[in-house]
Amino acid sequence: MLVLGIESSGDETALALVRDGALEAHVLASQADIHALFGGVVPELASREHLRYMGALFDELMRRQNLSPQDIDCIAVSRGPGLLGSLLVGTAFAKGLALGTGARLVGVNHLMAHLLACGIGQDLAFPAIGLLVSGGHTSLYFFRDEVSAEPLGRTIDDAAGEAFDKSGKLLGLSYPGGRLLDELARRGTADPALFPRPYLDSPSLDFSFSGLKTAAALAVRERLAGVSWPRPLERAEDAPQELCDLCASFNLAVAETLLAKTRRAFERRPGAEALLLAGGVAANSLVRSTFRRFMEERRGRLLVPAPELCTDNAAIVAYAGWIYASRGLGHGLAFETVPRGRPVPDDMAGPGRAGPC
Length: 357
Ligand code: KG4
Ligand code: ZN
What we know:
The chain is α/β, with parallel strands linked by helices. Strand 2 and strand 3 (about 20-30) form a beta hairpin. It is built from 10 helices and 10 strands. It has a 5-stranded mixed sheet, with helices on both faces. The chain has a 5-stranded mixed sheet with strand order 8-7-6-9-10, sandwiched between helices. The mean pLDDT is about 95. The structure holds 5'-O-[(R)-(carboxyoxy)(hydroxy)phosphoryl]adenosine and zinc ion. 5'-O-[(R)-(carboxyoxy)(hydroxy)phosphoryl]adenosine (KG4) binds next to helix 5 and helix 6.
């Protein structure tokens, strides 16, 4: 089965092909440079850029793979959560293509696409705890199997990626700051007492990362007064040691906070054997090594996508689409596009389901 994946929930326009569960090709046009001028994603601009790139990227993918649209068996598209205008570009394109070719259509929950991507190139294992750490979300789930995820907790304010990006801005890093902050942290020495481990006193499995921004602003004043560096900082080579040390402390605070809540999730779901770790922040080197050690201690499996498949791309959407389509699941043309902040309905039609949406 050949599945086309379409991603346009944020600032990346991307298309990918997955054949029988294996990634065959992917193309991506990033808008990061455009939004960097404004220090964050400008929704109206993002929608226009998706419109500009979507058709051209599709033609390029078909040409490069020597395929015609009729060869596609299933079209999987990110239906949300995300920026509504951006999502509509992808879902409208997917619906038109499905109507024209007769291919099966699957509206994919972008968050599930991130987590299921742990299965690209390796076998998924269940029952599992899922930890999604992206630019817009930080959530814990219990997965009985690949199509049933029970939410256990989520952020009550900023997501982990947002904490990286907003604090990165305070530290004078170019946008989005997460990746560079991670790179600087690897050159620094952490002070474990510099940043709080937020919201651990709450017994819930929810997170709160907004306080880290304030802590970062204070730390800049306390530790970096009189230290200068080029702003916005683009290259790790130009960073002073004091800045690298501060980044190392920040990285440690985020990794330890994520670990503490995930440990609790395993205590509450003792049957879970594996951890699915996904989303942009799962590309973070300390987050990866922290959870690798944790799962080794538990003698469980850590499943995490390759770093380049952690941030937004269409391979994860195509792969999730392949999982659903293999089970006979899919959508009619009427499925809804879901903006950030609203839950994505579990409304696929297929065997064991109530009927077409
Ligand atoms: O999953 P993603 O591409 O977008 C959403 O769906 O939200 O995640 C993007 C986020 C950004 O906040 C970015 O700064 C962060 O992931 N990120 C990182 C790293 N690479 C990307 N954060 C920390 N360390 C990294 N290495
Ligand atoms: Zn994402």
